[in-house]
Amino acid sequence: MLLVTGVNGGLGALVLERLAGRADVVAGSRTPDQVRAELPARLVDFDRPETLAAAFGGVRTLLLISAGAAEDDVVTARHGAAIEAAEKAGVEHVVYTSLSGDGDHLPYALAHRWTERRLRESGTLRWTVLRNGLYAELLAGIAAPGPDGVITAPLGTGRLAAVARADLAEVAVNVALAPARHAGRTYELVGERAVGGAEVAEVLGAEYRPGRLTDARASVAASDALDFQVPMVLGTYSAIAHGFLAGPGGPGDLAALLGRPPRPALEVIAGAASVG
Ligand SMILES: NC(=O)c1ccc[n+]([C@@H]2O[C@H](COP(=O)([O-])OP(=O)(O)OC[C@H]3O[C@@H](n4cnc5c(N)ncnc54)[C@H](OP(=O)(O)O)[C@@H]3O)[C@@H](O)[C@H]2O)c1
Questions:
Q1: Which of 55, 69, 87, 221 qualifies as a cystine partner to 42, CB 3.0-4.6 A?
Q2: Where in this chain does the record put each NAD(P)-binding domain (predicted)?
């Protein structure tokens, strides 16, 4: 049996769409009553480790979707609780959605690397690490034009090898349904063609006038962002602007695991803008 966590999040929901109707799949969520797919659902809350023994009963493969929206100590406690419970429940294989290796400069990299290390050091679990690149949908959000049609995101001439979240969901499903083939593997799942502020502006019919990090910090801090999210967003801008997230510029693990070229990031960004 495969259990997927975080199914009411953006990535988890896309994963579930692809697994709906399968007899050997269970959905895990803090809100199992809100799971829309035709699948049995179990309560899974890493902040309440007492929920996890029952949740992981009979599970052979756990698709552990990172629960990263918090300070490092909270995130590592969540992932640590999930992995410990998986070990105790006799889970055989954990597939973990991590962060791409080129993201080591990002403020949220630490919790992912901690989790990867915790999995490597497990005495009982087999594991696969899916090092997800930053979503095209995320770039659409942090580089959205203002009401005046101007993108001021401080990306300079930096580019991001952004990935369609749906592609990452598809890879997660492919791997989680055949975990033995991927045991002990760490995959780098980044886009093939990096995009920057100028290209985002062009596809949206906007203008790109990149601002400074200090102005972006003030504006993110003045928004409804939580305290820990301010350095997350600023660190993301900075890593893109300084050229750390441009990717290798060609096919890699993502295309290999999809069995086709990835969806172009600019199409995803244009689509996100048209619905948003
Ligand atoms: N690569 C990227 O660009 C990128 C961007 C944003 C986030 N991320 C990371 O990738 C993860 C998945 O992305 P996403 O798009 O699905 O993010 P999302 O839409 O914010 O969903 C995150 C989900 O994590 C689950 N979660 C949160 N706290 C939890 C807890 N205490 N116990 C169990 N599950 C918990 C929740 O699922 P339920 O509501 O079903 O409980 C939540 O909906 C994020 O959590 C974050 O770590 C990556």
A1: 55
A2: 6-176
The residue whose CA has the least distance to atom 35 of ligand 1 is 67
pLDDT over 70 percentage in the chain: 99
Q: Structural domain boundaries of the chain?
A: 2-133+163-190+249-263
pLDDT per residue as tens digits for the range 90-123: 999 999 999 999 999 999 999 999 999 999 999 9
Token output for 149: 């049609």
What residue's CA is closest to ligand 1, atom 36?
6
pLDDT band at 274 (very low <50, low <70, confident <90, very high): confident
Report the percentage of the chain scoring pLDDT > 90.
95
| Ligand 1 and 29: CB distance under 6 A | yes
The candidate with the shortest Cα–Cα distance to 173, out of 128, 225, 106, is 128
Q: What does the alpha-carbon distance between residue 92 and residue 78 come to, in Å, rounded to a whole number? A: 19
**Whole-angstrom Cα distance, residue 55 to residue 86?**
10
Q: How many residues does the chain have?
A: 276
Ligand 1, atom 26: nearest CA belongs to which residue? 67
Confidence of residue 276 (pLDDT cuts 50, 70, 90): low
pLDDT tens readout for residues 7-66: 999 999 999 999 988 989 999 999 999 998 789 999 999 999 999 999 999 999 999 999
Decide whether any atom of ligand 1 lies within 6 Å of the 31 Cβ. Answer: yes
Question: Residue 134 CA: which ligand 1 atom is closest?
Answer: 3
Choice from 66, 100, 160, 228 to test ligand 1 binding pocket (greatest atom count within 8 A of CB): 66
Q: Look up residue 97 and give its amino acid.
A: T
What is the helix (H) or strand (E) element at residue 137, kind and residue range?
helix 136-142
Superfamily name and number for 2-133+163-190+249-263? NAD(P)-binding Rossmann-like Domain (3.40.50.720)
